[in-house]
Write the structure tokens for this entry.
Amino acid sequence: MDFLERAELLISQQRFEMADEQLDKLLAEAPDHALAIAYKALIKLNTKEPKKALSFAQNALALEPESDFALYIIAMAFMEMHEMKKAEEAIVRAKAMQPYFADYYGIHSNIKLIKRDYREAAEIARQGLQINPENMICRNVLSTAQLKMGDKEASFETIEKALERDPENAMTHANYGWGQLERGSHKKALEHFKEALAKDPEDEFARAGMLEALKAKFWLYRVFLKYYFWLSNLKPSVQWVFIIGYVFLQRVIRTVSRSSPELATILVPISYLLLLFVVLTWIIHPVFNFFMSLNRYARYLLTDEAKNSAIVVGVAFTLFAVSVVGWLITQSDGFATGAIVCFTLILPYGKIWESSKKWTQVVVAGYSILATVVGALAILESFQGSIGGDYFFGYIIIIVAFTWISNFLPQR
């Protein structure tokens, strides 16, 4: 057995470090061995090093321009880096070179799914299933696309057939769990996420799903999930219509309230309720992560980033609760300002680790520090005088600005 055969065997056994050693020995003798370099790229992809995987795969492609395997790894690396346009370009080229390999259709359909082109995702997945009816990637993507398009019956029929064909497939169980979660059946979702993690303890898709299903035990979070799934199924352009519509509605309410004081008693509470709903949709995810971090079992489902977020959000939420109690006892404007500031600080705090890009984390962290400083000055100002001073209004401007700025920052 030569170096390449040993490496292939070790990769199939997920013994990546030993496989890498075999490939290095081969490349020491044949530095331009394109397949060996492509296998090194595959190893880097499996060890969560997408940038290195991309570099190796591009080198392999330069040596062998007709390598659909290298293009596949390039597509997967770009997907890990959340660069979907480049990922799609690579997998389309791979499909053109090898049009009868169903996995490539599965990857392409998955990219379309991520881009929320649900009809195209379903069509490409069906093309892959015509090549190989047993392909689990295509079948899972088809099920999700059908669910997102509102055809729940077809979606669950598709995923149930996938489970019949391969009941041990972790990806299928995780996908079925997310489908049940979107359907509102968090108990059934938990069962399938548990099955997925039993079969693949490293499955992040299933781990995230189980965390959401545990949060869904609370009715308030279930309401949020319904809204989240509904909104996430819309294309970004449509989402912006709702955002602009909300701003326009608030302006209309304000104008009508000023011109018709008799309607203000009805419209003003509606305006505040709408504002509270919007704020809750922003903070509910990090707040519930904080509560999950207090659970001795659920805390293990949180990523390191989510744990960090839970700590800072937990501090803000605790100070908010203390401020509310202080205001109830003393009716002090300082405690009222403290409650407003600590509650709204959860907005930037909860976003610090949301993106995987370091520069985004630094920007949001810096913005959070600025908001904290101005907020603290507003609280001190309120203790010395009354609520509504210059620092308080400056703080409100900073928080409102953040809700707009964050829309333009990468989320992954």
